[in-house]
């Protein structure tokens, strides 16, 4: 529903949605978070030293590949992109004595296009950390207060947190924003946030 509304309002269907693989975000042209992939590998239980070594070797190789992807984003080049594509195949085609790790490797191979979406769109982030940081205040408040008592309370909380985060991203004091909108005498004028968001970076 939200994606349909965004599309109707002019958001390009070519926009990539980057997620941790939660089903509700697998829309349009989807991309996967590398950090969440590594977390899945790190969390694998190991029944032997050989399995533990296989996991650690893969994690080390994965972080090396990730570092090279980050470097490529700074200076995208087609031949280097082709080499990274081939390295992905080498990295995720390995077979180990860890059945769980083998399943994860197969799943990553199946989602190659989503993990390497950055090779077609270098400006795409490789992880969802920025979005998770934006949600941290919401999650913290929810844990402290055990949620809201009504739908109106939830909507008010979400609206205020959304405005606060958006103002901060544009270098605007949230208190100045509120004072201007509430017409407090002497308050500095603050532009409308949608106008700021619509401006090219």
Strand content: under 5%
Oligomer: single chain
Overall shape:
elongated
Rg value? 22 Å
H/E order of the elements? Answer: HEEHHHHHHHHH
What is the number of beta strands? 2
Helix content: 55-70%
User: What class, by secondary structure content?
Assistant: mainly alpha
Q: What topology, given as strand order, has the largest sheet?
A: 1-2
Largest sheet: 2 strands, parallel
What is the typical, i.e. mean, pLDDT?
84
Question: Unreliable runs, pLDDT <50, ≥5 residues?
Answer: none
Q: Helical segment tally?
A: 10
Please provide a brief summary of the model.
The protein is mostly helical and 201 residues long. The chain contains 10 helices and 2 strands.
Describe this structure in words.
This protein is mainly α. The chain contains ten helices and two strands; from the N terminus they run αββααααααααα. Strands 1-2 form a two-stranded parallel ribbon. α2 packs antiparallel against α3 and α3 packs antiparallel against α4. The two termini are 27 Å apart.
Could you give the topology of this structure?
Blueprint: H1 2-8, E1 16-19, E2 29-32, H2 34-42, H3 49-74, H4 78-92, H5 99-110, H6 112-115, H7 129-145, H8 151-169, H9 174-181, H10 193-198
Parallel strand pairs: 1-2
Helix pairs in contact: 2-3, 3-4
